[in-house]
């Protein structure tokens, strides 16, 4: 019982710290706090936050998650459209241009949860995400296949107003 309570407090502290850092940097921040939709009832207790901000001509994107199964890898990506009750409502993966590998053109936020079921996935991409071209971050059941980009069933979806 005590261990669970400590974990909750630490998790809340981590989540609260990030907006302050982003604001201190005086840059645009796109917030997504969720999840917006949970596609699998086993993940009903999951909590997410997404932050995205411009840096060095590109974009930093960070996904923070609490309440997932412990010590497990998950795939996560920026998707094209907002979440819906249909898992496919979030559309395909956001892609920048048509050249290069999927890892170079898409925004992957894979992470592995710690012993408390918390995880952070982050990346830096060298471009800006235009308003209206990306609407959500989806957490999948499996790590991303680096060849196909597939990551299994869509479990948790969070709306993020990228570029707006
Ligand atoms: Cu995805």
UniProtKB/TrEMBL annotation:
MF annotations from Gene Ontology: metal ion binding
Domain of life, source organism: Bacteria
Gene3D superfamilies the UniProt entry points to: Superoxide dismutase, copper/zinc binding domain (2.60.40.200)
GO biological process: one example: superoxide metabolic process
Family recorded in the similarity comment: Belongs to the Cu-Zn superoxide dismutase family.
Name the record gives this protein: Superoxide dismutase family protein
